[in-house]
Amino acid sequence: MTNGQPAMIEAQGLSKFYGNFAATRDVTFSIPQGQVAAFLGPNGAGKSTTMKLLTGFLTPSEGIARIGGHDVSTNRMEAAELVGYLPENGPLYQEMTPKGLLRYFGEVRGLGAGQLAERLDFVARRCSLEEVWGKPISKLSRGYRQRVGMAQALLHDPKVLILDEPTSGLDPNQTFQVRELIHDLAKTKTILLSTHILSEVKAVCNRVLLINGGRLVFDGTVDAMAAQEADLEKRFRQLTGGAA
Ligand code: ADP
Question: How far is the CA of 103 from the centre of ligand 1 (A)?
Answer without folding.
Answer: 31
